[in-house]
């Protein structure tokens, strides 16, 4: 494994399972110390932190609800207190709620938008203030979704949140460039994680999804983590304001029979 992140410190939201966990482990394997936050899965978060510490890197697990602005700010403060500073912020925590558009409730809309869009917005703001104080640049990586681009019927609030992340990434790439801060998104397709539990347990739906994926397999959390490590490293110093699709070709799949 390359040591591209030696001496760096990363903060990853939702690092207790799924894609976030793979990102924490990959960044640490490339040399970074990592702070991760989790909403309720303390056992998972402690396990990830312990696995990182075993490799000789520092790790800290912090409980926080990123949908609440003050808690996101507290995560950034705690990460800085425990690990000295943060060079890399990964906004990974996210959730989705299925409903026909006409049945979407305000609490469900708020839950999705608060965690997927408002959280990353204000966490990034706290990170930027920290980097300004440190008088140094940094890297922000947002875990978006192919649904920043592709419609997903019955998931309107999710699509709105990820579409918002796409434009936030583009906008901040311009505003943060003078500070030496780059910001990019990763848009995963169908990745094998707990968020897709229902789909993974439905052989008919799973088969039809796989038929739509040109590479003919689901993605693994590690497929996303390797791109995150690239974007976090100096190999991506000239990359900002863009989205990397990690989807096995799903998004632009079109074939005439
Ligand atoms: N798995 C996929 O197919 C897929 C596809 C596209 C995008 N994504 C995105 O990837 C990201 C990670 O998803 P995943 O598949 O690993 O899902 P997951 O359900 O396994 O993990 C979600 C993570 O978000 C955290 N989280 C949720 N609400 C939170 C809150 N209020 N405060 C703090 N943390 C909170 C959880 O602790 C958990 O670690 C999400 O942003 C999701 O939208 C996933």
Folded structure, characterized:
This protein is an alpha/beta fold and 257 residues long. The chain has a single domain (9-246), classed as Rossmann fold (3-Layer(aba) Sandwich), CATH 3.40.50.720. It is 45% helix and 15% strand. The protein is built from eight helices and seven strands. It has helices at 18-29, 42-54, 69-83, 106-134, 156-176, 197-200, 203-211, 221-232, and strands at residues 9-13, 33-38, 59-63, 88-91, 138-143, 181-188, 243-246. It has a seven-stranded parallel beta sheet, with helices on both faces. It binds nicotinamide-adenine-dinucleotide. Nicotinamide-adenine-dinucleotide binds next to α1 and β2.
Tally of separate helices: 8
Structural class: alpha/beta
Bound molecules: nicotinamide-adenine-dinucleotide
**How many domains comprise the coordinates?**
1
CATH domain class name: Alpha Beta
> Percent of residues in beta strands?
5-15%
CATH superfamily: NAD(P)-binding Rossmann-like Domain
Radius of gyration: 18 Å
Major beta sheet, specifics?
7 strands, parallel
Distance between the termini: 43 Å
Widest β-sheet, arrangement of strands: 3-2-1-4-5-6-7
Q: Can you tell me the residue ranges where pLDDT is under 50 for at least 5 consecutive residues?
A: none
Silhouette: globular
Mean pLDDT level: 97
Number of strands: 7
